[in-house]
Structure formats: structure tokens, C-alpha cells
Design brief:
- The complex is a heterodimer of chains A (481) and B (507).
- Chain A is of the alpha+beta class and 481 residues long.
- Chain A has 15 helices and 17 strands.
- Chain A has 3 domains: 2-92, Uridine Diphospho-n-acetylenolpyruvylglucosamine Reductase, domain 2 (2-Layer Sandwich), CATH 3.30.43; 96-228, Uridine Diphospho-n-acetylenolpyruvylglucosamine Reductase, domain 3, CATH 3.30.465.10; 232-433, 3-Layer(aba) Sandwich (Vanillyl-alcohol Oxidase, Chain A, domain 3), CATH 3.40.462.10.
- In chain A, strand 16 (395-401) and strand 17 (406-414) form a beta hairpin.
- The longest helix of chain A has 19 residues, at 305-323.
- Chain B has 4 domains: 5-92, Uridine Diphospho-n-acetylenolpyruvylglucosamine Reductase, domain 2 (2-Layer Sandwich), CATH 3.30.43; 99-226, Uridine Diphospho-n-acetylenolpyruvylglucosamine Reductase, domain 3 (2-Layer Sandwich); 249-462, FAD-linked oxidases, C-terminal domain (Vanillyl-alcohol Oxidase, Chain A, domain 3, 3-Layer(aba) Sandwich); 469-507, no CATH class.
- In chain B, helix 6 (261-274) packs antiparallel against helix 10, helix 6 packs antiparallel against helix 12 (388-396) and helix 13 (398-407) packs antiparallel against helix 14 (444-462).
- The chains are: A alpha+beta (481), B alpha+beta (507).
- At the A-B interface, strand 9, helix 6, helix 10, helix 14 and helix 15 of A face strand 9, strand 11, helix 6, helix 10 and strand 18 of B.
């Protein structure tokens, strides 16, 4: 152990290696599952060359590396060590390297967080796709590498959006740049704006590192899409009682590209967001809200914003009339909270603890499905919760993706009730058997999705052998040894 | 050379005698017919027409057993669809032409390789649905365009490149194993092509496709968009003299000319930031003249008149397709603001009318092969993408190498015959430079390659990302070191998944 610390200390400057037990505990914070291994030390690279040196030394020592880009708490276990490992902490590679308003892109190091990036973009009249109320210390690059969906489906053409190009250090220690960042020539002489994500050539290299939990390569920067910040935003809400009526309006509005933000929350989740850590307010809100609420926004951009809003509002109400649904300008029963909610969707979660942790430890179950399966999977989840003996309601969040051609469904629950742990363990298989697709298989979900997918596992392992032949990058994750 | 009898019989046992042939007069029709290639054409050893995924798998396994190279084809519009060396068989997939499912609610269609744009697009319009149709004409294979070739199209401004719309892939690996990626992995349906975990669909297509070099894709699902036009195209006349005009309240064409590329670039960027319009591009002018005329003589009359050189040297084509007349009024107002600020002017009314009379130009180009009509040779150069800004940088450098070819009379004098197509409301753009030359020129066999090489050298010298390295071969070896050493990774992947190098290897 001492020699390991010395080798890393020789490699990096002072202060970039830490073996302090207190410091290493940070990497376990929020993890529900013990991966089985320990963080032995943490290294804090500041340059690509340092990342490459770390990877080469790890190869020499056959020492696993676990990359970490976001601050705690960590919900999904992607950074839990399966074996004793060195943590590669990217928090010091946190620069916003370039904001390009004309090309609507931003170039970020992996440690750049939503808390830092969102205001910097706003100052330039831009915004970036954000997941639902991310914590401020969450890495923007890691979030989108892991294919987390944003709240504006119309900008989501592909599950990898808004990711464009990136630089990666593979498990061999070689560096590589994807898409139009690849070349010709060096980064210094290349004139491209690095916004074409595909290639180089006939392979989509950026897809191989997506949802890989750092097991295929360590990303040292990425270029991401940004969008024009609206001048006007109008919130609208659709109260829904029957989950069977949840997707029709979202589907219709998205296929016609009428709305920007488009998502649905059940009353448990919406109350948790609005109430913060005020338990009485949470109970009051939960009683006042309808079972589900669809949140929508109509936007006007830099040119003739009022006219755009007027036109899209007409389209919105035409759809409402056609479907026979009420579209409200405010949250049903909660006057003036609608605008506040919409405003909050543009920002990271400002408080501690995160809204998901209002009752302590958080369990999340999330998957993708087509729009047509959303209602049946919500009902199944409710049935599974009842069968597991869960008292009360669990949180629910429905996020259309890829312009409405699919849906991210998320259920979350927190507390110490053993029924919740049982639900967390048992529900995924039942959901998968009814059509839920666990496209980002964290923890035990990996066994579920890969156990009958031999041909895919074989192909993924071929790629892993190519990019990380000594299996030093976050070993034991997904279908890898 | 023909296949040994026992191998032929083994292949015949898979597809049946009716769907295999090694007759020379049939195989001769499968040689590359492209007029711009000087090398002698190579016949395949046999052609097979499999009818199912299981048959494709069986054929691929036999090919591996005997180290026979195979190329899966449909439309055969590109040189990679033809054998380049002996010992190659062709898998013509046109029998696999079923539209297996159209799911209007979840907005996807599952198709086999032989489904053509003209078949699928017309079917979808009746359901109020659409997809970005590549500029290959109605006979092009939808699957090939989405998953195997490039996928740029006239509509990518308001949609995207076709690879963005892949929702599921079923694919026979070069070894013969069947791989289903994305949500198919857990039998969850055809709606997501990525995952579980790292996305294997990255193996089939990058900026360009694998051109059959990574096995045979037998089914895909493509995502569908809302179609803002009528269920059937309102057509007057008969091909080639026909008109298609969509209702003016929600469908309008505007074409503007600009005094310089900088102002045109500015207008394109601003239109994208405003998120107006369905199709936006700077189109070719010589190719536009070919599309606008019905005979070679008509073309020369038009071209020699100078109209298209004057009006369409630096044009901005904008097709507005809206959901209501009110939205049309809004989008036109924004567009005119931008054009006023950037110094654009409407083109001559006679040019504008051509596109108003043939709005299929933006939807499903029924007469695309007119660009081949002159009977000489033509080829594209560049064919890559980055930002609008960067593509205009690339365009400004075109005269650096093109002028010499024009001055020496080697190619058609059409220095503005390039297209810049923005995608996803201007988040990226694609450039393509088409050049035409006369096969009667004494050096005709070298003109194409020389031109493309000079184009590439110019851009590399400037640090411009205007082309993407090809899949395999000497060119990849030469260019790979300039593109992050991509040749190293591409070859490792090809070797790992196609150890016998039988799936359309390229020299």
C-alpha cells in the first residue's frame, strides 16, 4: 500500500494524492450498496497527461481505477468499488473550456458541475439540457455520458443528446478524440468547432463510452449542445387522474413540437419538490395535488418572442380541445406556484438535502419504455408496491425522451421501511418482464438485463478487451469481470 | 473464377435454386457500372437472394467456413456495393422488402432492407407520419440509408441525419451470429437502439456507415415524425413533366441570394437560432440546373444562359412547413427580419417558381438521377460535417484547389456547385462539393482522384474537418494518424468482429 501511494505521489504533484480515511469515506456517501471493495486512495488529475500517467501506472500495477466526477451523494452505485481501487477524482478538472453562442455549444471538463455551468451559460443567453432538478455538484459531462434525459424532449434527437464530441483516455493509456474533434491534426491546429458527434469514419466511438460507468475510458473533456435561452416562458399544467390518460397529450404536443419542457410528476414527487424538507407542507401539498400533473412550457426566443408564444399557445389549446382536456396556467389548487416550479427546472437543486432524500436514503427505479406502455407500467409499479407492503405513495416521474418516441419512467422512494428495500429488490424483474428496458443497468439490474443476452455480452466484452485489455477501468460493472 | 461446385451447392441448399446464380450474363450485370472509375470491373462469383434473416445467417456462416467474401446490397448506388476483387459473392436483399410494423402511437416503423423510400414514405403519409428521406431518390433502400451509408438529406435542418432516427437494429454479425441491440436485448420492443450499457450500435455506423463491412443488417426500426402535408401528393402532369404544389397556407418556399458567403452564413445561423423553417440549405447550382431540366440540351441552354450562376451562386433555400397560417405568418416575419439584416434578396421569380412547382424537392426527390444525365463522370468531394461556421470556412477555401482544374478545362466550370446543409436547427452542418468532368478528356481516368486528393490536402493543410476517414484500406492507413489514430481502433474492431475478413473487405 505504501509503495502504491509513493508511486502515485511520484507521478503527480503534491496534494494530488490522498489516502486519508476521512477523505476516502466521501466516495461511499449515498451509496446504498457496498460494492465489495474499498477506495484505497484518491488521485486528483488536472490534465489529460496526468490522467494518461495514472492509467499507465494502473496498468503496470494491475490496479483498478474508479472514476468519480460528481460530488456526493451518489445514488446509483456506478462509482462503488467492486474491488480495492484507486479513485480518479475529476473534481479539479472542472473548467468551462469554451462557450460558443453562435454554434450553441459548450466545452467542459468532467468536473464542471451544473451549479457552475448553468449560470455561466445563462450569462451568454444559453441553456443546457438538465435532468430533473439535479444537485448542484453533479457533473454535467458524467450526467450526459450516462444518458440521463433532460426535461426538454424536443431537443433530444438521440439518447446521447446533448453530447457531441469528447476526448477519452482508454484503458491502454492512449488518448482519442471523437467526431469532428478527431482531426485532422492536433487539437491546437484543428479549426473545427467539434460539434459533429459521429465518427471518425464508420464507427460511433462516443457511443462505446456512453452508459459505461467509466469502464471503457476516462473522458477528459466533452463538447455538448446548448440551446438559446428563451426570452419568455409560460408554464402550463394538465391535471391527470388516470395514468391511462397521461401520455396522449404529451405525445400529441411533442410530435407537433409545440412545447419545450414536457414531463409528468405524481403528487408525491411534486409535493417533495415544492415542500423541500417541510413535512407539514409536504402533507398539505400531497393532499391538494391531483394524482399526476403534466408540466409544460411554451417559449418565445430572441426574435418576436410574444408572437411565437401566441402562436404556440393557440396550438396548445387546440390540442387540449381536440383531446377534451383542461390545460391550466397554474398548478391546480396552488396559485402562483407554477411559475416558481418552471423557474426551478432551469436550475440545479439549491438546497441540502436533495429533494429525493427528504426522508433519508433514496431508492430509485428507472427504465425506458415506449409511450404506449407507460400507463401499464405505472399501474404495475403501484401493484408491486402494494404487494411489497409499502404504506403510502411512492414518487413517480415520467419524462418523454427522443422527441416523444420513448419515455424515461422513474419511481423513487425513501425511508427505512423494509418494504421499500423489498420493492427495490423485486420490482425491476417484474417491470422488465412487462416491457421496461433498463438501458442503464446499475448494480443488480445488470444481472437482469445481461443474463439472457449472450450475444450482446460477447460483443461488449470484445470492445472491453480492445479499449481496456487489462480490465483496470471500474471492473465488475455491467457485464464485465 | 467461379465458386467450387460443393460450395455453390451448399449455398444453393440455403436459398433454393431459384435464388442463386453464377451465370456469367447475370454476374456481369453486378459489376460496378460507375463511369468515373477507370479500373476494370470485377464480376462476383455468384449472386444470392436470401429471403429471411435465417438464410442470411446460414450464408454468412458458409462464407466464413470457406473464407468467401460477401457484400450485402440493395440499391447499389455506390462503388462499395460492387466486388473489388475475385472470390466475392453478392447478397442481393431485395426479397426482404416487408414493412413489418408501423406503430403510429409510438412513432416507429420496422422495416427490412429491401423497403424503398417510395414505398415507405407514401405509406406513412396516409397516417400523418414522415421521416427524413435521404436525397437518393424513391428507389433507395431506407435501411441502407439509415444504417449502412451516410444519411444526409434535404430535411435534416428540421430533423436530423438519418442515423439519429434508428430505434432498433437486428443484425447478422460478420461471424453469422444474430445480434439485437437496444431495447430488443430484453424483448422490450423496437423503440431504443442504445444499450443496455455501452451502445453497440456504434459498430454499424459512425459519420458514414460500414458499407456492409460489419455483417448484414436485416431489420431496423426508424423513428417517425409528424407529417404536415396532405395524405397524398397533389400532382399535376406525368413524369418527367409534373408539378407538385402543397397548400400555400402552410407550405412556402423562399430562396434568397447573398452577395458573399459571410452574409449567407450569418443568415443560416440566425434562422437556426430562431428555430423556424423545416428545410434550410445552400444548394448546388449546377446540380440544381440538372434537376430543373428534362434533357441534356435543356441543361446546357440553361447553364449557358448564366441564370443559375448569377442567381444561385450563394443561395439560401428555405422551406417553411407550419401547422397553421398563424405560424406561417410568424415564421415568415422572422425570416424576413433575418434576411433584411443579413443583406439577402429574393432570387429571380423564374428560379423561385421552379421550386414552388416541385415541392417534392424537399420531401422525396423523384428525379434525383437527373444529376447523372450528362453521361460524363461526376463525384462528390468533402462529405463531412461540423458547425455551420466551419463548413463555410471549408467552402471559402474551395477556389484554392478548384480554380486550377477549371482553368485547365478538366472539370465543369461550376465553382459554386457545393451544398451546405445545416442539421437540427443549425447545431451542425454538412458539406458536399460535386464536380463533373468529361470522359472524353485525355486524362479522364485521373481527374476524379486528383481532384479529391487536392481537396483533401487543402483542407488538411488548413486543419479543416471536411472529410472523414474511410472504413478500411490504404486511405485509412494514410489518414488515420491525422484523425486521432482512428485506423488503429478501426482495425482492431474489424479484426475482432470479422476475423476472417469476409464482410465486404475493402482494398
Amino acid at each position: 500500500m505504501q509503495s502504491l501511494i509513493e508511486r502515485f505521489t511520484d507521478l503527480l504533484e503534491d496534494g494530488k494524492v490522498s489516502a486519508s480515511p476521512l477523505g476516502l469515506n466521501v466516495y461511499k456517501q449515498g451509496l446504498r450498496h457496498d460494492g465489495g471493495g474499498r477506495p484505497l486512495l484518491a488521485v486528483f488529475p488536472e490534465t489529460k497527461a496526468e490522467v494518461q500517467a495514472i492509467v499507465r501506472l494502473a496498468n503496470e500495477k494491475r490496479m483498478p481505477l474508479v472514476p468519480v466526477s460528481s460530488g456526493p451523494p451518489r445514488f446509483h452505485g456506478g462509482t462503488a468499488c467492486k474491488t480495492d481501487s484507486v479513485i480518479v477524482d475529476f473534481s479539479r478538472m472542472n473548467r468551462i473550456l469554451r462557450i460558443d453562442p453562435d454554434n450553441r455549444s459548450v466545452m467542459l471538463e468532467p468536473g464542471a458541475t451544473f451549479g457552475a455551468v448553468i449560470p455561466a451559460l445563462k450569462a451568454q443567453g444559453l441553456r443546457i439540457s438538465t435532468p430533473l432538478l439535479p444537485r448542484a455538484n453533479k457533473s454535467v459531462v458524467a450526467c450526459h455520458l450516462e444518458r440521463e434525459p433532460g426535461t426538454i424532449p424536443k431537443y433530444h434527437y438521440d439518447h446521447l443528446d446533448p453530447l457531441l464530441t469528447l476526448e477519452v483516455v482508454y484503458g491502454t493509456g492512449d488518448d482519442f478524440r471523437t467526431g469532428s474533434a478527431s482531426g485532422p491534426g492536433s487539437l491546437e491546429t484543428l479549426k473545427a468547432d467539434k460539434v459533429n458527434p459521429w465518427g471518425p469514419g464508420s464507427l460511433d466511438y462516443y457511443r462505446f463510452v456512453s452508459a459505461a460507468q467509466g469502464s471503457m475510458g476516462l473522458v477528459t473533456w466533452a463538447v455538448l449542445k446548448t440551446e438559446v435561452l428563451p426570452v419568455i416562458k409560460r408554464p402550463y399544467f394538465i391535471p391527470v387522474t388516470d395514468p391511462g390518460r397521461l401520455t396522449a397529450p404529451m405525445n400529441e404536443l411533442l410530435r407537433r413540437r409545440i412545447v419545450d419542457e414536457c414531463l409528468a410528476l405524481n403528487r408525491h414527487t411534486l409535493a417533495a419538490i415544492l415542500a423541500g424538507d417541510d413535512a407539514r407542507e409536504f402533507a398539505r401539498l400531497q393532499a391538494a395535488l391531483p394524482p399526476w400533473t403534466i408540466l409544460l412550457a411554451i417559449s418565445g426566443y430572441q426574435r418576436r418572442p410574444e408572437e411565437r408564444v401566441r402562436v404556440q399557445e393557440k396550438h396548445l389549446f387546440d390540442v387540449g380541445d381536440r383531446l377534451g382536456i383542461a390545460i391550466e396556467p397554474d398548478l391546480p389548487g396552488l396559485r402562483a406556484r407554477g411559475a416558481e416550479l418552471l423557474e426551478s427546472l432551469e436550475n440545479p437543486w439549491p438546497e441540502t438535502p436533495h429533494w429525493k432524500l427528504r426522508s433519508g436514503d433514496s431508492h430509485d427505479i428507472f427504465f425506458l419504455c415506449p409511450m404506449s406502455k407507460v400507463a401499464s407500467l405505472i399501474l404495475l409499479m403501484q401493484e408491486l408496491a402494494r404487494d411489497a407492503g409499502v404504506n403510502g405513495e411512492i414518487g413517480g416521474y415520467i419524462q418523454p425522451v427522443t422527441q416523444g418516441r420513448g419515455c424515461h419512467c422513474e419511481f423513487h422512494f425513501s425511508g427505512a421501511d423494509p418494504a421499500l428495500a423489498r420493492l427495490s429488490a423485486e420490482a425491476p424483474e417484474a417491470l422488465m418482464n412487462h416491457g421496461a428496458f433498463f438501458s442503464r443497468p446499475y448494480g443488480a439490474w445488470a444481472d437482469l438485463v445481461y443474463r439472457d443476452y449472450a450475444e450482446g455480452v460477447a460483443a461488449l466484452r470484445e470492445l472491453k478487451r480492445i479499449f481496456d485489455p487489462n480490465n483496470i477501468l471500474n471492473p465488475g460493472k455491467l457485464c464485465f469481470e | 473464377m467461379s465458386l467450387p461446385k460443393h460450395i455453390y451447392e451448399e449455398l444453393e441448399a440455403v436459398v433454393g435454386a431459384r435464388y442463386i446464380s453464377d451465370r456469367p450474363y447475370i454476374l456481369a450485370a453486378l459489376r460496378q457500372p460507375l463511369p468515373n472509375i477507370a479500373t476494370p470491373p470485377q464480376s462476383p462469383e455468384a449472386v444470392l437472394l436470401p429471403g429471411s434473416t435465417a438464410e442470411v445467417q446460414a450464408i454468412v456462416r458458409i462464407c466464413n467456413k470457406y473464407k468467401i467474401k460477401y457484400i450485402a446490397v440493395i440499391s447499389s448506388l455506390i462503388v462499395f456495393a460492387y466486388p473489388s476483387e475475385p472470390g466475392t459473392i453478392i447478397l442481393q436483399l431485395k426479397r426482404m422488402n416487408r414493412i413489418e410494423e408501423i406503430n403510429a402511437e409510438d412513432r416507429y416503423a420496422v422495416i427490412e432492407p429491401g423497403v424503398r423510400h417510395g414505398q415507405l414514405r407514401t405509406e406513412l403519409m396516409h397516417l400523418g407520419l414522415s421521416y427524413p428521406v435521404a436525397s437518393v431518390g424513391p428507389g433507395g433502400s431506407v435501411l441502407s440509408n439509415f444504417a449502412c451509408a451516410s444519411g444526409d438529406n434535404h430535411n435534416e435542418y428540421g430533423s436530423s441525419r438519418t442515423n439519429r432516427y434508428i430505434c432498433g437494429v437486428e443484425w447478422v454479425l460478420p461471424s453469422g451470429e444474430l445480434l439485437r441491440v437496444g431495447s430488443l436485448a430484453t424483448d422490450s420492443g423496437w423503440f431504443c437502439a442504445d444499450g443496455p450499457g455501452p451502445s453497440l450500435r456504434g459498430l454499424i455506423k459512425g459519420f458514414t456507415g460500414q458499407w456492409g463491412g460489419m455483417g448484414v443488417i436485416t431489420r431496423i426500426a426508424i423513428g417517425l415524425d409528424h407529417w404536415r402535408g396532405p395524405a397524398e401528393m397533389p400532382t399535376e402532369g406525368r413524369s418527367p413533366s409534373y408539378k407538385i404544389r402543397l397548400p400555400r397556407d402552410c407550405h412556402r418556399i423562399h430562396i434568397f441570394k447573398f452577395p458573399d458567403l459571410g452574409k449567407l452564413e450569418r443568415a443560416m445561423v440566425e434562422v437556426g437560432k430562431a428555430e423556424i423553417g423545416f428545410s434550410v440549405m445552400k444548394f448546388f447550382n449546377a446540380s440544381a440546373a440538372l434537376l430543373a431540366t428534362e434533357s441534356a440540351n435543356d441543361f446546357w441552354d440553361l447553364w449557358n444562359s448564366g441564370l443559375f450562376q448569377r442567381e444561385l451562386a450563394r443561395p439560401l433555400y428555405v422551406y417553411l412547413a407550419t401547422q397553421s397560417p398563424e405560424e406561417m405568418a410568424y415564421e415568415e416575419a422572422v425570416l424576413m427580419d433575418i434576411i433584411g439584416e443579413t443583406g439577402g434578396e429574393p432570387v429571380d421569380a423564374s428560379v423561385q417558381r421552379i421550386y414552388e412547382d416541385n415541392m417534392d424537392f424537399y420531401i422525396l426527390v423523384g428525379f434525383l438521377q437527373r444529376v447523372l444525365r450528362l453521361g460524363g463522370a461526376w463525384a462528390p468531394a468533402k462529405l463531412s460535417g461540423d458547425s455551420i461556421h466551419h463548413m463555410f470556412e471549408v467552402a471559402r477555401a474551395i477556389p484554392e484547389f478548384m480554380t486550377e482544374f477549371i482553368d485547365k478545362g478538366m472539370i465543369l466550370n461550376a465553382p459554386d456547385n457545393f451544398m451546405i446543409t445545416p442539421g437540427e436547427y443549425g447545431h451542425f452542418a454538412h458539406i458536399e462539393l460535386l464536380f463533373l468532368w468529361d470522359r472524353g478528356h485525355p486524362d479522364w481516368a485521373n481527374i476524379g482522384m486528383n481532384f479529391m486528393r487536392r481537396s483533401q490536402e487543402t483542407d488538411i493543410g488548413h486543419g479543416y474537418h471536411s472529410s472523414s476517414p474511410p472504413r478500411t484500406g490504404a486511405m485509412l492507413q494514410r489518414l488515420g494518424p491525422l484523425y486521432s489514430n482512428c485506423h488503429v481502433w478501426a482495425e482492431r474492431i474489424k479484426q475482432a468482429f470479422d476475423p476472417n475478413n469476409v464482410s465486404n473487405p475493402m482494398p
